[in-house]
Design brief:
single chain, 167 residues, mainly alpha, Rossmann fold, Arc Repressor Mutant, subunit A, 6% strand
Length: 167
């Protein structure tokens, strides 16, 4: 699965395919290594995540692993996942609390939604979503959307069991 495709992006395509065909196993093959692509793709159901600059032998191994139902991650992606798990950001509560709208945006970020998807759901512009994301990261002293999503999960603001985009 590529992540950037016309019409439907690879993350949403992965989510829909896995929901309808539970026996399907998806390997992401992309040039994007950013947290805002990696974690949503894995959360959507991809078992593997490989970068396009991988060696052909690594691609064949990854395909075989994912086919067997095992995970397969590019080494740099695996390192990121492990870093996020082993060194979660622990910050004290901000003196400047999040607004209700920022909390809504944070919850949707934790579900793996893109800025475009958040904008559509909340009926606001992508620029407004970007402003909210920037404010959230600043107020919580976080460096990435992934850290914000983990914060929301840890603080009980979101749940891994939330699969629908509504509510």
């Amino acid at each position: 699965m590529d992540l950037v495709m016309p019409g439907l992006d690879g993350i949403e395509a992965t989510r829909q395919i896995v929901a309808q065909l539970t026996e399907v196993r998806i390997l992401v093959l992309t040039s994007f290594a950013a947290d805002d692509k990696v974690f949503p793709a894995i959360k959507a159901g991809a078992l593997g995540y490989l970068l396009k600059d991988s060696e052909p032998d690594d691609l064949v191994r990854a395909i075989r692993s994912v086919y067997r139902g095992e995970s397969s991650l590019h080494p740099s992606i695996a390192r990121r996942v492990l870093q996020e798990i082993s060194h979660p950001v622990r910050q004290s509560a901000t003196a400047d609390p999040l607004t209700d709208r920022e909390i809504e945006v944070l919850r949707l970020m934790a579900r793996g939604l893109s800025n475009h998807e958040i904008a559509a759901q909340l009926v606001i512009t992508e620029a407004t979503v970007r402003a909210h994301v920037s404010s959230i990261l600043g107020k919580l002293h976080l460096a990435s959307r992934t850290q914000a999503a983990l914060y929301a999960l840890r603080e009980g603001m979101a749940s891994l069991n939330e699969t629908d985009k509504g509510s």
